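As a warm-up, study this chain.
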Amino acid sequence: MKITRISVFQKNLPLKDPYWLSGGRLKFEVLDATFIKIETDSEIVGWGEGTPWGHTYVPAHGPGIRAGIETMASSLLGLDPRKIELVERAMDTCLPGHLYAKQPVDLACWDILGKAAELPIADLLGGMRNSGTPAASSVSSGEPEYMMDIINRYRSMGYVAHSAKVGGSDTDKDIERIRHLESQRRDGEIILYDVNRAWTRREASIVMNAVAEFGVTFEQPSETLDDIAQIRRVTTSPISVDESLVTLQDATRIARDGIADVFGIKLNRVGGLTKARRMRDVAMAHGIQLFIMATGGSVMADTEAAHLAQSIPEEFIRACWSCQDMLTIDIAPGSGPRCVDGFITIDDTPGLAVTPDESLLGDPVAVYQS
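Now compare it with the structure written out below.
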């Protein structure tokens, strides 16, 4: 089997509501999504999606994905997409770094491999749990009641986990937010407090120590792994790392040095499933739990995350973020898993199990073929 054609589509995905990142630092209203279609000489087709959360969140942006695919296309044409790690090496050789540009190609290859093997991607990643994964919402930063209203809205849709955005120079306000949300947390409900790198070391220690009684988990409380390692020394709250978890070297350092209790693996950031499964294995080998997430995007991006999440034993998986309900557009109506009774569940459909409606994507912005 060989890759014969790569088609690239660009689609804006508007958010239903304006979204404020931690501390109100950054506002997002639309996501720049890239969809790719990989065709083969055996007529098996694979789909992938790469959707960064804007272009100011981390070093990744929509136009960069499309430029990266243009750079890599000639090295990909003619390869066997089922040989996942050979494709990975080809991309890493042709374009060092730029992991976010490689993730949609990686996903499309896993989709093809699953269809060829007649297995869902979760089974190819090691074996699929029969149970689904708790679905997590993402709660925009704001006043405590505003954030609680968002959680209640997601509760009405069945969500049982929430990533609530905190962080900023007003430590009293963050303490108020956390205490307010914790006072209304339901039994069995998961609330992760995501700082998105916004705190200084001093601010992190103030807030985390003030609410230590709740035993809540804080994600990325400061900018770097060095910062978080120092915060770890003066606080007792569990810590999750996501923005500083980019490479396998990051994962091994976090595990070896005891920097965090949870890995937050964002698939677009780390370069896709091929690299993420190695991080998964490092985490489990060290007793570290996991949140699995896209950086944003449609049901296709959510489904990629759900496949990896459902390959993780229940005792290690915390939740899987679902972005699809934040969007005004559904690019694959009737396709892919949705949040049902609080869980996202992969079935036995081979491959990714999501096929977008091409009429909704429009014409390709680029086509590369052999």
